[in-house]
User: Fold Photosystem II Psb31 protein domain-containing protein from Fistulifera solaris.
Amino acid sequence: MKFSALVCALAATSAAAFAPAVSERASTSLNSVDRRAAFGQIAGAAAAVAAFPQLANADGAVSAATVNRARGIYGDRIAALKSAVEKGDLDAIVAEKNAFVLFNSGAYPTAKSKQQKKAAIEGTNAIFKAIKAGDKAAVKSAYNSYVAANDISPLPAVDANKGQGYSGDFDFRVRTKAGAIYVR
Assistant:
């Protein structure tokens, strides 16, 4: 974003620098444009753009929809680990480590949810600390407390004859068990 703004500013100032002056009569000579003046204007514009980096501030597209999407996608993956936790299959949990990381960052993206995110990360660390120790009972306990503290539940299965689970192709539920749609 900053780079594109810088390029646009440089292009605008360089175009203005090489434009003929209105008060002067156009010269046919190739030396009619002073390179020092042109590059001085370009450098001045670059310094002005660099002086205001806060103008190119993005929020990372944080909205209720993106939080819901993260909770739906990664929360469902975490909820699906329940049977692996019950069996004591630690490798299956380790294979889904990214689901925990992405859930923590996606479900709690704002500064307002900083404490919740910190608690979720501590819960994730407790799960993987127990996995590293090989303590299946501690993994089960840490997993259950993590799921309860973060209100994680699996996506509901929707029957296409009884309801509709999504309404657009870009909904995260499209290719899941919650993604049924009634078609006549």
